[in-house]
């Protein structure tokens, strides 16, 4: 049974009740979850699964499931090391409470939304990205010089502009008819499921994205360009950090 990815519609959910559907060598599978699995450049969520008796199974990471027929929403919750005895006690059919590490996730949300602002500040194709708790890294396919001060000033303007951030959906056919929406060279939007999720930053940016984001750019807060370097002859790397 496919996992219902609750974070797709509400990234601010910090917990949910769920039923274990399987426990295997990779981790724990649930019928629904608030845990975001590693993908699209964004790190997977950490947190805990709380059993009926109050026991906490610490989750160190969340990954996309790889079984035959798995969808992009199917997730496996990876336990932290040293919990083998706990895993032996649980089985499919049990109810748990899934709780994410909200502090960690919220930093991901702020930095991921900031990476979309970067796509508006620097209108080049993105040839790689990584969203972690500490930074957002983007590689832009360009030979043009990038001025750190100009980037920081424009980012501050967009953050302070309090632009609304929301998701919307289009069909696979509509996505195929609008290839200009795709800004990333290394990560393509998932097709074949009937619809594609878009992230719209009002008046700023619109592109396919399955990640988690804040509701308003003002929530991002102050940013600084921690690193700006020439990664290759045709690529410039920029690393953003929260101040």
From TrEMBL:
InterPro entries from the UniProt entry: Ala-tRNA-synth_IIc_core, Alanyl-tRNA_Editing_Enzymes, Thr/Ala-tRNA-synth_IIc_edit, Transl_B-barrel_sf, tRNA_SAD
Pfam families: tRNA_SAD
Keyword Nucleotide-binding: no
Cofactor(s) needed for function: Zn(2+)
SMART domains: tRNA_SAD
PROSITE patterns: AA_TRNA_LIGASE_II_ALA (PS50860)
GO molecular function (one): nucleic acid binding
Domain Alanyl-transfer RNA synthetases family profile stretches: 1-238
Gene Ontology BP terms: alanyl-tRNA aminoacylation
Protein localization: Cytoplasm
Gene Ontology, cellular component aspect: cytoplasm
Keywords associated with the record: Metal-binding, Zinc
Listed name of the protein: Misacylated tRNA(Ala) deacylase
Species in which this protein is naturally found: Paraburkholderia rhizosphaerae
Source species taxonomy: Bacteria, Pseudomonadati, Pseudomonadota, Betaproteobacteria, Burkholderiales
């Amino acid at each position: 049974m496919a996992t219902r990815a609750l974070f797709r519609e509400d990234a601010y959910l910090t917990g949910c009740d769920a039923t274990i559907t399987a426990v295997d060598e990779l981790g724990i599978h649930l019928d629904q979850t608030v845990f975001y699995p590693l993908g699209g450049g964004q790190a997977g969520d950490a947190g805990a699964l709380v059993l009926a008796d109050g026991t906490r199974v610490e989750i160190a990471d969340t990954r996309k499931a790889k079984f035959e027929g798995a969808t992009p929403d199917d997730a496996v919750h990876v336990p932290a090391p040293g919990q083998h005895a706990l895993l032996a006690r649980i089985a499919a059919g049990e109810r748990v409470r899934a709780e994410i590490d909200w502090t960690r996730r919220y930093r991901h949300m702020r930095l991921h939304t900031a990476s979309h602002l970067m796509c508006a500040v620097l209108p080049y194709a993105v040839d790689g990205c990584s969203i972690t708790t500490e930074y957002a890294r983007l590689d832009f396919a360009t030979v043009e010089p990038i001025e750190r001060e100009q980037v920081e000033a424009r980012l501050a303007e967009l953050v302070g502009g309090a632009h609304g951030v929301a998701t919307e959906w289009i069909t696979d056919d509509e996505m195929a008819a609008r290839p200009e929406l795709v800004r990333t060279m290394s990560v393509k939007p998932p097709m074949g499921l009937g619809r594609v999720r878009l992230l719209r930053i009002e008046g700023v940016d619109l592109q396919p994205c399955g990640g988690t984001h804040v509701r308003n750019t003002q929530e991002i807060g102050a940013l600084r360009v921690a690193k700006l370097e020439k990664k290759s002859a045709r690529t410039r790397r920029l690393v953003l950090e929260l101040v």
